[in-house]
Protein backbone atom coordinates (compact mmCIF):
# COMPACT_ATOMS: atom_id res chain seq x y z
CA UNK A 1 0.00 0.00 0.00
CA UNK A 2 2.90 2.33 0.80
CA UNK A 3 4.40 1.75 -2.68
CA UNK A 4 1.15 2.89 -4.35
CA UNK A 5 1.04 6.12 -2.35
CA UNK A 6 4.57 7.20 -3.22
CA UNK A 7 3.98 7.72 -6.99
CA UNK A 8 0.64 9.40 -6.32
CA UNK A 9 2.25 11.76 -3.80
CA UNK A 10 5.10 12.54 -6.20
CA UNK A 11 2.61 13.24 -9.01
CA UNK A 12 0.67 15.60 -6.73
CA UNK A 13 3.84 17.52 -5.83
CA UNK A 14 4.92 17.78 -9.49
CA UNK A 15 1.45 18.90 -10.50
CA UNK A 16 1.43 21.56 -7.77
CA UNK A 17 4.72 22.97 -9.06
CA UNK A 18 3.92 22.83 -12.79
CA UNK A 19 0.39 24.22 -12.32
CA UNK A 20 1.86 27.36 -10.72
CA UNK A 21 2.47 29.81 -13.58
CA UNK A 22 5.13 31.74 -11.67
CA UNK A 23 7.15 28.61 -10.89
CA UNK A 24 6.78 27.32 -14.43
CA UNK A 25 8.10 30.63 -15.76
CA UNK A 26 11.10 30.47 -13.42
CA UNK A 27 11.85 26.89 -14.49
CA UNK A 28 11.67 27.82 -18.18
CA UNK A 29 13.95 30.81 -17.57
CA UNK A 30 16.64 28.51 -16.25
CA UNK A 31 16.85 26.40 -19.39
CA UNK A 32 20.37 26.92 -20.67
CA UNK A 33 19.80 27.13 -24.43
CA UNK A 34 17.18 28.52 -26.80
CA UNK A 35 16.95 25.07 -28.38
CA UNK A 36 15.84 23.67 -25.02
CA UNK A 37 13.28 26.45 -24.69
CA UNK A 38 11.82 25.55 -28.09
CA UNK A 39 11.53 21.90 -27.04
CA UNK A 40 9.85 22.89 -23.77
CA UNK A 41 7.41 25.13 -25.63
CA UNK A 42 6.26 22.09 -27.60
CA UNK A 43 5.04 20.31 -24.45
CA UNK A 44 1.61 21.98 -24.43
CA UNK A 45 -0.16 25.22 -25.33
CA UNK A 46 0.24 26.61 -21.80
CA UNK A 47 4.03 26.18 -21.90
CA UNK A 48 4.10 27.70 -25.39
CA UNK A 49 2.18 30.75 -24.16
CA UNK A 50 4.73 31.22 -21.36
CA UNK A 51 7.75 30.73 -23.63
CA UNK A 52 6.37 33.05 -26.34
CA UNK A 53 5.38 35.94 -24.06
CA UNK A 54 7.40 39.08 -24.96
CA UNK A 55 8.22 39.84 -21.29
CA UNK A 56 9.45 36.28 -20.78
CA UNK A 57 11.59 36.39 -23.93
CA UNK A 58 13.19 39.68 -22.83
CA UNK A 59 14.12 38.11 -19.48
CA UNK A 60 15.39 34.93 -21.19
CA UNK A 61 17.60 36.92 -23.59
CA UNK A 62 18.89 38.98 -20.67
CA UNK A 63 19.93 35.84 -18.79
CA UNK A 64 21.20 33.94 -21.84
CA UNK A 65 23.03 36.22 -24.28
CA UNK A 66 23.80 34.74 -27.71
CA UNK A 67 26.91 32.60 -27.85
CA UNK A 68 29.59 32.77 -30.52
CA UNK A 69 29.16 29.81 -32.87
CA UNK A 70 32.32 30.40 -34.86
CA UNK A 71 34.15 32.87 -37.06
CA UNK A 72 35.00 33.47 -40.71
CA UNK A 73 38.54 33.28 -42.09
CA UNK A 74 39.39 35.30 -45.17
CA UNK A 75 42.28 33.77 -47.11
CA UNK A 76 42.13 35.72 -50.37
CA UNK A 77 39.96 38.50 -51.71
CA UNK A 78 38.69 36.29 -54.56
CA UNK A 79 37.50 33.34 -52.47
CA UNK A 80 34.56 33.45 -50.08
CA UNK A 81 35.44 33.40 -46.39
CA UNK A 82 35.50 30.00 -44.70
CA UNK A 83 33.47 29.44 -41.52
CA UNK A 84 35.34 27.85 -38.60
CA UNK A 85 33.00 26.47 -35.93
CA UNK A 86 34.04 26.77 -32.30
CA UNK A 87 33.52 23.86 -29.86
CA UNK A 88 29.96 23.96 -28.57
CA UNK A 89 27.97 22.18 -25.87
CA UNK A 90 26.01 19.21 -27.27
CA UNK A 91 22.78 21.22 -27.47
CA UNK A 92 24.35 23.72 -29.89
CA UNK A 93 26.88 21.42 -31.59
CA UNK A 94 24.08 19.60 -33.40
CA UNK A 95 22.66 22.88 -34.71
CA UNK A 96 26.08 24.08 -35.91
CA UNK A 97 26.70 20.74 -37.64
CA UNK A 98 23.37 20.82 -39.53
CA UNK A 99 23.46 24.42 -40.72
CA UNK A 100 25.55 25.60 -43.64
CA UNK A 101 27.53 28.78 -43.00
CA UNK A 102 29.25 28.64 -46.40
CA UNK A 103 29.15 31.80 -48.46
CA UNK A 104 29.99 30.01 -51.75
CA UNK A 105 26.48 30.54 -53.10
CA UNK A 106 27.06 34.28 -53.24
CA UNK A 107 29.47 33.88 -56.14
CA UNK A 108 33.15 34.59 -56.69
CA UNK A 109 32.83 38.35 -56.08
CA UNK A 110 35.18 40.02 -53.72
CA UNK A 111 33.87 40.08 -50.17
CA UNK A 112 34.14 42.80 -47.61
CA UNK A 113 33.24 41.35 -44.21
CA UNK A 114 32.28 43.45 -41.25
CA UNK A 115 30.23 42.97 -38.12
CA UNK A 116 28.01 45.23 -36.08
CA UNK A 117 26.01 44.43 -32.93
CA UNK A 118 26.61 40.71 -33.36
CA UNK A 119 25.46 40.71 -36.98
CA UNK A 120 27.60 39.69 -39.93
CA UNK A 121 27.56 42.43 -42.57
CA UNK A 122 28.40 41.10 -45.97
CA UNK A 123 28.29 43.68 -48.75
CA UNK A 124 29.24 42.31 -52.15
CA UNK A 125 30.33 44.38 -55.08
CA UNK A 126 31.51 43.91 -58.63
CA UNK A 127 35.17 44.47 -59.52
UniProtKB/TrEMBL annotation:
Domain named F-box: which ranges?
A: 21-59
Q: Which Gene3D superfamilies match?
A: 1.20.1280.50
Source organism per entry reads Aegilops tauschii subsp. strangulata (Goatgrass)
What protein is this chain from? F-box domain-containing protein
What the entry lists under InterPro entries is as follows:
F-box-like_dom_sf, F-box_dom
Amino acid sequence: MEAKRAPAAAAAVISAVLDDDDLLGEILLRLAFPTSLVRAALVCKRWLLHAAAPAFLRRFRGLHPPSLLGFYVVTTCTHPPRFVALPQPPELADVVRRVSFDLDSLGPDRFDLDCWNGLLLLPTFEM
